[in-house]
Amino acid sequence: MDRIRVAALQYYIRPVPTFEHFKDQVESLVATAADYTCQLLVFPEYFTVQLLTLGDVKRPMPDQVRALAGQLDRYLDIMTGLARRHGLYIVGGTIPVVEGDKVYNQCYVFGPGGDYGVQGKLHMTRFETEEWLVEPCSRLRVFETGFGRIGVAICYDVEFPEIARAAAVADAQILVVPSCTDDRQGFLRVRYCSHARSIENQLYVVHSCTVGSLPMVPAVSLNYGQASILTPSDFPFSRDGILAEGTVNQEMMVIGELNLTTIGESRTFGTVLPLKDSIRTAQITRDVEIVKL
Question: Is 103 in contact with 97 (CB distance < 8 Å)?
């Protein structure tokens, strides 16, 4: 499959009175992506925090996060069913997961056959560590799909170049970045780094964001986002390296068509070859010389 259509959500976070309201919102978005014949749909990080409004929002945040993890089975049932019903791949944002006495922030990638894989967040932001008591994961995965390989860098993870580089070396042509940021500075850290990873590794980046607010929930009381589909900066791609992007802080779906043949050709015949030349960079930086002046 040389050309695929992908969708990145600017997912509107809002209080929900019942689980069915959350389910309806998710199902409607997946159905819309399917109507536009998308093969890949990306939800943002922590879009599942809507479900916190079903419980006592006055409890300490670590307790609320663990309660949200209790929704995992219902979340998996929804997503696996939707991926199978509509025949598309879904990067299902993230949801907290409890393993033993630890809590992790995990992203599930669902295939059209109803199976799924998991990428945990590898680097935690301060609010996750200090206020939510969420632990970092330690395994990077690349997912094999019917159209090629994709990597997942969850929000803060995209600010570490080694993660995207390892995925690209493993032949990922698409990097998915589900994010949740509360202000413009945080959003731009993720956006700028996403575009840098696209250029460095000659791959597409699909960035999905939360918008809207949950005033009663600390750390997600505000959301600032602009979903986008980003490309390398070279002649075969979009002029500014932006294939598509949304309107800031509006509820919407950003859709674009990726040419995977172009990515492969750019890695061999591009104006510059940063992915190939990164082998030399690894050799150069292995032994840094200190020069005293």
Answer: yes
